[in-house]
Every structure is written in C-alpha cells, then in structure tokens.
Amino acid sequence: MDEKTLTKNTARLTALDGLRGLAAVVVVFHHALYTNPEFPGAPGGGHAPVGSFMWWISYTPLKLASAGVESVIVFFVLSGLVVTLPVVRRRGFDWVAYFPRRVVRLMVPVAASVVLAAAWVAAIPQISTQPSGTWLSNSSTPNFSWEYIVKAIDLLGGDGQINNPLWSLRWELAFSLLLPVFAIAALAVRKWWIGGLALACALTWLGAHAGSGELEYFPAFFVGAIIAVRLDVVRDAAARINARWFRHPLWAGLTVGSALLLIAPWLVGPGVGSIPELDNVLKGLVPLAAAGLVVAVLGWTPLRVVFESRPLQFLGAISFSLYLVHVPIILFSTYLFAGQAWYVPLLFALPLAVLVAVGFTWLIEKRSHGWSKAAGEWASARYRTWFGPEEETREPAEARATTSTRA
C-alpha cells in the first residue's frame, strides 16, 4: 500500500489521540482520589456514606471522571487498534524493523520515568501515617534503594513499586511482542467478528473470575485488533448512518450506552461486592464498552470534532508521558504537604504533573520516536545485508527510505 493510501486510511484516527488524552486525565484523577482512604475501590476498602461527595463520584455516572482501571482498558483497545493497523494495511510489513522499534519506543520512556520516579521517592521520606493496606501505604517506598530501579525497568518480571502505573506497560510490552499472534487471530475472525468480540468478553470474564491477568487484559488488545481489520467496514457503516435522519440519536445512544457500560460495576452500587459473579460479568463487558466508545469517536462527526479539538489533542500528545510520571509526583506532594487536608497536596501535584509531562514529552518521548525508528532501520538493514537477496542489499538508500514504517 502506497503512502498516500495509508495516509487516507489513518487520517481520521487523530480523534483517538484525544480519546487517549482524556483517558489519561481520568487515570490521574483516579490516583489522586486514591490518596483519600475513604474513596470507594481504593485498596483498604474505602466506604462512602450515601449522598456524600465520595458516593456521588463513585456510584453515579460521575464515576466516569475517575474510572482509572476502565480507562486503562480503553488504552489497551486503542493500542490493539493502532499497532495492528499497519500490519493489516501494509504489504510486506517489516517485522524485522518492528520488534526493535517497538521495544525502544516503549522502554526508553519507561526507563526514563523510573529514574525520575526514583528521584521523587528519594527526595522526601515516604513513611505513611495511613493504616497498612491503603493505597498510600502500599505505594510508598520507605526504604528506597537502587534495586527498585532495576525491578521497575524489568517490565516482564520486575516490580513497579516506585511507579505503579508500570503494571499496565507490562501488558503493552507483552502484546507488542505477541503482535503476530493477535494480528493472525483478528484476521481469522474477520468475517465472524461478532463471535470474536463475544470470545473476548468471555475470556475477560474468565480472567476476572480466576484472577488471571493474561485472560483479563489481553482480550482488550484483541478487541482493538478486530477493529483494525474491520476499520473500512466501520467507516462505511458510519457513513451510511451519517446519511440518515436518526444519526445523532443513534450515535448518542451508542456513546452514552458504552460509557455507562464501561462503569457498570460501579452503577450497581456498593452492594455489588456481595454479588462477586455479577461484578466479574460486568467487568467482562468492559472491552466491548471501550470498543463502542472508539467506534463512536471515529464515526460520530460532532464527537470526533470534540476529540480533535486543541485541548484534547494537547492532552493526547502528552498522555503517555503524563501516565508515566504522575503517580510519583502525587506521592511526593502528599508527603510534602503532610498534615494538610487530603486535597491540598493535589492542588500542587496535578499542575506539576502536567508541567513535568510536557517536559518529559519533549525531552524523552519525542526523542524515543527518532531512536526507535533508527533502531528499526538499523535492524532491517542488517537483516537485508546478512540474509536478503543480493539485489535487495544494493537497493538505493532513497528507495529504502520510502518504505520505512511508523510504530
């Protein structure tokens, strides 16, 4: 597929950057509220009286503003879509370049965020006055040593104690390494996509029921991969819907329904804890809800315009960096303002996290793009030199440049 066609196919995906930015902000709010042990869902079992502020933002649709775990599932679906799309759209996809490119793209910002997190942890003693088992107590590192840096960088087998959002990067990296499997599976269910989505929901439910991270999180990437292989169909269907008088009610229904389904376990109320299987079933539907939001953002013109707006595009541009840096800053601020009301540190931490994310994006993340591209081109060139036909090794440099791929 030529560059012009590829650009046409991906042009409208810019709205998904805005969706990613909004999801990152929700994750930040989620962790910010975790500093209050009364926040429902926080480790240690927060309890909110009916009608209280914490109740309203936990058991009503306002939960959308702090649905951090659910927003991570949205991240996973988005990754499944945008990482799989070049594979199914480009003829002769360069797998030799892909693997080093993708690993460098993920690991350079991760490693930099770990070093930065270590600086925040070492800057002030993290000795929690909250009871053992709370989020603040669990996330603090009172006896910091350099070993924590090594453990955090080791995504697949380490321990992200000093920067706990790294737990999700473990699944991002694993999916990236298993991309051929996901792409083949998505292509295999291309005509039976409803069955593929149903299978993903069933596996997610099973993972939640059995406590298996692989089954609970990998299906979300698979859902994104299914959208990637069906993207033209999604766009054609959206175009047909947008030509009808009922387009706005239909799209609004899909958007609102998907958003509510995303937080359905919370809308049941605190009593859902006494019905654990219902909680697991509703969690199994979260990838489907995330897919609904993705389709709505791509297909509903007014919604797409919102997510293509400058504020949300700005958040999308810094979303990965914001996700990587915010928790250590929240913890640092909590200890810096120890003894103050729980929300006072957040007035300092949240603006600081955005500023640090902007700097991190410019200093680390943007450079990681260039380094990852260079690593992929180097690996691909070495492979052609060592194993490729002689005529390929003599291909002019300017011709090779037109076939480079982006992760």
Descriptive account of the structure:
- The protein is an all-alpha fold and 407 residues long.
- The chain contains 21 helices and no strands.
- The chain has helices at 3-10, 14-34, 53-59, 68-89, 95-123, 135-139, 147-153, 166-177, 179-188, 193-210, 213-229, 231-242, 247-262, 264-267, 276-284, 286-299, 301-307, 310-336, 344-387, 390-393, 397-401.
- Helix 5 (95-123) runs antiparallel to helix 8, helix 9 packs across helix 11 and helix 11 (213-229) packs parallel to helix 16 (286-299).
- The longest helix has 44 residues, at 344-387.
- The protein is globular, with a radius of gyration of 22 Å.
- Mean pLDDT is 90; it is low at 1-11 and 391-407.
Query: Residue ranges: pLDDT <50 for 5 or more in a row?
Result: 1-11, 391-407
Tell me what portion of residues adopts beta-strand conformation: under 5%
Overall 3D shape: globular
Helices and strands, in order, run as HHHHHHHHHHHHHHHHHHHHH
Percentage of residues in helical conformation: over 70%
Keyword list:
mainly alpha, disordered N terminus, 21 helices, 407 residues
Describe the protein's topology:
Blueprint lengths: L2 H8 L3 H21 L18 H7 L8 H22 L5 H29 L11 H5 L7 H7 L12 H12 L1 H10 L4 H18 L2 H17 L1 H12 L4 H16 L1 H4 L8 H9 L1 H14 L1 H7 L2 H27 L7 H44 L2 H4 L3 H5 L6
Helix pairs in contact: 2-4, 2-17, 2-18, 4-8, 4-9, 4-11, 4-16, 5-7, 5-8, 5-18, 5-19, 9-11, 10-11, 10-15, 11-16, 13-16, 16-17, 18-19
